[in-house]
Amino acid sequence: DNPEIKEEVLRKDDRFLTLLKDVYVESRDPPVRVKDGGGEHLPCKQEEKRLTKLGHLEALDVKKVPKGKISIVEALTLLNNHKLQPQIWTAEKIAAEYSLELKEVNSLLEFFIPFTVQEFPKETKKAIKSHKPKQLT
C-alpha cells in the first residue's frame, strides 16, 4: 500500500547487481547409494489365494490364504481329522483338499501331533482333594 516501499522493491541496485554477477555456485549431487533389498517396493507377483475350509470355526481365523499354505485353525483341524480317522484322512487326501504338496503334508503329520484331553475319574479327584499339603519348616 505504501508507494515508497513499492518503489524501493522495484528499483534495481547496480551495486548489488554487479556483486551478484561475481557469485558462482557449483552444485553436486551426493553419490547415489543402492539399498540392500531395494526391490522391496516393486510390485510382486500376485499370489493365488483360496478360501479356507473352517466350518463352524470360521469366525476364529482368516478367510483367504495363499495356495500351498494353511491357516492355524485349518492345521489343527486336519491334524485332528487325521488322528481320529487316519484311513480316511490320508496324506494324499489332505494334500488335495488343502492345495498342499505331499512331502509337506507328510512332514506335518510326522512332526506335529495334536494334544489329547484326558479327564481323570472322580475318585482320583477326591483323592487329590483329601491330600494335605506339607508344611515347610
UniProtKB/TrEMBL annotation:
GO terms for cellular component: mitochondrion. It holds the Pfam family UPF0240. InterPro entries: NDUFAF4. One of its GO terms (biological process) is mitochondrial respiratory chain complex I assembly. Belongs to the NDUFAF4 family. Binds calmodulin. Interacts with NDUFAF3. This is NADH dehydrogenase [ubiquinone] 1 alpha subcomplex assembly factor 4. It comes from Dicrurus megarhynchus.
